[in-house]
Amino acid sequence: HPVSGAMASSEEDGSVEEKENNKKKTKRPFVTAWLTIYNIAMTAGWMVLAVAMVRFYVQKGTHKGLYKSISRTLKFFQTFALLEIFHCAFGMVRTSVIVTGVQVCSRVFMVWLVTHSIKQIQNEESVVLFLVAWTVTEITRYSFYTFSLLNHLPYFIKWARYNLFIVLYPVGVAGELLTIYAALPYVRKSGMFSVRLPNKYNVSFDYYICLIIVMLSYIPLFPQLFFHMLRQRRKVLHGEVMVEKED
């Protein structure tokens, strides 16, 4: 399910402090080096996207054509994020494989099977909504991981990581849902990705119904992830503020 576009940043962080301590004890130098390179590359990739989007809008004064102009970069970096599932599976990162898998696959689904595949919706305003939400979320998230791995986490990045999502999650989710909704008539008319009976495999699949199920899946999943991040926020920001005051 696309559980949440902007939500990809909601990894099950657990207590960040605890985790960082565990990581320091157990992480091998190679793993730390690889994760640092990966997170720097991803931060840079999403920054390139941000600059390209701003430049496009300044030059053209419209969002029409924006998706097309950045689609190759977007598809590359969003698909590259599938590596995060392996990071979890091999224990390089202490995060649930299922949570990460759902989040990353939801983004890949949104990029390839919705926006890329249904050309007629690429100029919808809703596409800009989720692109902006994703871009700001990912720049914040990957720079947070990079600085954490280097043991030099500036407070403003930690603050951004645990505050911006309050606006970015709902904006990203609204953008995704509106984009899928805009795609429905085209999918119904074209019958794309659908398999009709009778056929030799005796199976049928209706992509139109599939997209409706995907939209409905947001109802239970969005609040769950959103409230998880609110709990993290309290733990990380307010827990730390108290400690700092005591010093």
Structural class: mainly alpha
Order of helices and strands: HHHHHHHHH
Query: Shape, please?
Result: globular
Terminal-residue CA separation: 45 Å
Number of strands: 0
Helical run tally: 9
Which blocks of ≥5 consecutive residues have pLDDT under 50? 1-25, 241-247
Helix content: over 70%
How would you characterize the overall build of this protein?
This protein has helices at 16-26, 29-60, 66-80, 83-89, 97-116, 125-149, 155-161, 165-190, 207-246. The protein has 247 residues and is mainly α. α8 packs antiparallel against α9. The chain is globular, with a radius of gyration of 19 Å. The N and C termini lie far apart (45 Å).
Q: What attributes does this structure have?
A:
disordered C terminus; 247 residues; 9 helices; mainly alpha; disordered N terminus
Summarize, please.
This protein is an all-alpha fold and 247 residues long. Helices cover 74% and strands 0% of the residues.
Q: Strands, helices and their partners?
A:
Layout: H1 16-26, H2 29-60, H3 66-80, H4 83-89, H5 97-116, H6 125-149, H7 155-161, H8 165-190, H9 207-246
Helix pairs in contact: 2-3, 2-6, 3-5, 4-5, 6-7, 6-8, 8-9
Organism: Polyodon spathula (North American paddlefish)
InterPro entries: Tyr_Pase-like_PTPLA
Transmembrane segments: 31-54, 74-92, 164-184, 205-227
